[in-house]
Task: inverse folding
């Protein structure tokens, strides 16, 4: 049987920057433009083991040294462990590390956009700083299945990802924060279809441990709602706060965010009623009082607007009836006039006929 050769190699453009970045083997000491816009570049200093690149969610152990353009060292880690793809380092490094082999040493140049941006990382990293990293990928290991983790481990990992989400949120990166919060929930909330092994582990956990896990997940849902509100994903944000309120009906932070979400959705009366629940729990809260005052004014305007609409509808109806009456009146007058003239005409004709008859006779 004749075996056909694979012609896929003929379609590869060896000088294309994205192709170079994705190939396992490329010449050392050559800068690779990973994104094609010169905002993230990588150069191999020492080749690693072929075909050993990490995949998403694997644990990478790294040695990292970061310098500014003037040579100032601003970051240094000897055995930093990260979960690839979970944004536990800046975006530029997260993307570039995925293109490294085990034992590889590379230089990675990261533009401010994919590093610390306009905010920087004070006091060491100034705003809008390009950073040149020397990175060694020491080892990789597979992620442990969540079902095999103890309650304590799940709590620790989940909160680490929540804190990273908070870091991105504070830097006004809500989409990245949302990604971290969702990952945190995977560890803090047990899967619906758990293995019998995980069920046994949950059974062995104390009530206090499970309660702590629940409370931590409520914090994540609250933070997730805040990030979703920033992206104007109000329906998703409402689901997040409802997840909190289903377990903690008197959670003030969730109630306040629910009120704000309903306000943004234009449901002013429901928003007002929601915020009134906070007043019963925590009287004289300035932020709530201010929001209530704004909503009260909007509810009044909404009511006035509805009243004006009804008046307009009623006024149009009245005018229509009047017009119909006028038409009927005019038609009736014309009919009476027509009949009157008909009678008069008939009478005149009769008199004339009578006179003519008399005259002829």
Result:
């Amino acid at each position: 049987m004749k075996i056909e050769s694979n012609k896929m190699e003929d379609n590869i453009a060896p000088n294309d920057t994205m192709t170079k970045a994705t190939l396992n083997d490329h010449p050392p000491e050559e800068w690779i433009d990973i994104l094609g816009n010169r905002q993230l570049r990588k150069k191999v200093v020492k080749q690693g083991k072929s075909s050993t690149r990490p995949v998403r969610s694997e644990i990478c152990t790294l040695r990292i040294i970061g310098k500014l353009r003037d040579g100032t060292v601003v970051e240094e880690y000897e055995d930093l462990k990260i979960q690839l793809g979970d944004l536990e380092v800046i975006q530029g490094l997260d993307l570039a590390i995925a293109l490294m082999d085990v034992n590889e040493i590379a230089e990675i140049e990261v533009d401010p956009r994919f590093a610390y941006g306009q905010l920087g990382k004070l006091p060491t990293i100034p705003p809008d700083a390009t950073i040149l990293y020397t990175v060694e990928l020491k080892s990789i290991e597979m992620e442990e299945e969540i079902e095999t983790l103890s309650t304590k481990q799940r709590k620790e990992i989940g909160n680490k990802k929540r804190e990273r989400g908070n870091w991105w949120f504070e830097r006004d990166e809500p989409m990245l924060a949302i990604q971290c919060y969702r990952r945190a929930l995977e560890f803090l909330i047990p899967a619906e279809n758990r293995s019998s092994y995980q069920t046994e582990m949950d059974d062995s956990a104390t009530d206090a441990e499970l309660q702590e896990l629940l409370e931590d997940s409520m914090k994540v849902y609250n933070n997730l709602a805040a990030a979703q509100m920033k992206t104007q994903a109000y329906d998703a944000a409402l689901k997040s706060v409802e997840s909190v309120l289903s377990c903690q009906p008197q959670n003030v932070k969730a109630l306040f965010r629910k009120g704000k979400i309903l306000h943004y959705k234009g449901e002013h009366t429901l928003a007002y009623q929601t915020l009134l629940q906070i007043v019963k729990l925590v009287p004289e809260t300035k932020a709530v009082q201010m929001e209530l005052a704004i909503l009260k004014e909007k509810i009044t305007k909404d009511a006035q607007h509805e009243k004006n609409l009804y008046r307009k509808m009623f006024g149009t109806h009245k005018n229509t009836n009047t017009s119909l009456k006028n038409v009927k009146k005019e038609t009736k007058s014309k009919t009476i006039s027509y009949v009157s003239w008909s009678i008069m005409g008939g009478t005149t004709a009769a008199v004339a006929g009578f006179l003519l008859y008399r005259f002829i006779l």
